[in-house]
Specification:
Blueprint lengths: L8 H8 L7 E6 L7 E7 L2 E7 L8 H13 L17 E3 L2 E7 L11 H18 L12 H11 L5 H17 L6 E4 L8 E4 L2 E5 L6 E4 H12 L9 H14 L4 H27 L13 H12 L10
Antiparallel strand pairs: 1-2, 2-3, 3-5, 4-5, 6-9, 7-8
Helix pairs in contact: 3-6, 3-7, 4-5, 4-8, 5-8, 6-8, 8-9
Length: 316
Amino acid sequence: MSVFTTVTPDELRHWLQDYSVGELRDLQGISAGIENTNYFVTTDSGRYVLTLFEKLTPAELPFYLNLMAHLAGRGVPSACPVANRHGAYLGALNGKPAALVSRLEGRDVSEPGIVQCAAVGAVMAQMHIAGQSYPTTMANPRGPQWWTAVLPEILPFLPASEAALLQQEVQQQKAARAPGLPRGAIHADLFRDNVLFAGDAVAGVIDFYFACTDALLYDVAIAVNDWCVNADGALDAPRTRAFLDAYAAVRPYTAAERGAWPMMLRAGALRFWVSRLYDFHLPRAGELTHAKDPGHFRRILELRIKDATTLPGLPG
């Protein structure tokens, strides 16, 4: 959510003529994140988020925008795109694909507690069930094929020990992909800053632009590796248990998922170690951008390998 492409108030006023949202009152750039250009937009009719997509193409974007609308229509508290006067969710602004999305109320939390972790687990399970009826599929753009493809670009920047760990884990994950896991539409980036709370209740899930079709358990692993970790990256047992149990109360895990859980936690850590390495060492020019620390997910991966036999398991 950085600002790579500048939009002036006059440019936005002209663009908004194609929407039934009233007159523009305020426009503010959002500095967090690293993938797209985002602005907070306030008009006569409400508050929105304007996103200009810096990497995703017009051919790819309907998957994400239609998924958001699909989930919102089935009671998932997710951000929902706003259709223009022609009924389309996707437009173009300053040479980039662009969308206007409802801005949800609530605030993200930097240090979630047990009750909040349980709430996120339950909402993720609800989201996975609702996503089962979403008819469109999208291969994971940051999955094993991408990890392998970007390795040659990343490895020259790493010390020998980290390069060896990275290459070894990529190979082990490719060999360990478990068949038969339940699959469907997943968020794939459900970090703390992508969930808004009103008190201890989830008010909204945002930023679906890494969503894809993949193992549901992969989504769980990504979330647990962020919501349920201590500062050193180790899993906090009470928060992990609360998340996993709340999820299972809505969508029980399968036997195959229980067996795949330790390696899936490693896969979730590896995905974000690789992507943060890529963004840190090979950044794009842009204003207000913030590349995140790759070392955080390297440490998480090292801990998931070290603690493989003592990790909190999935409830049976």
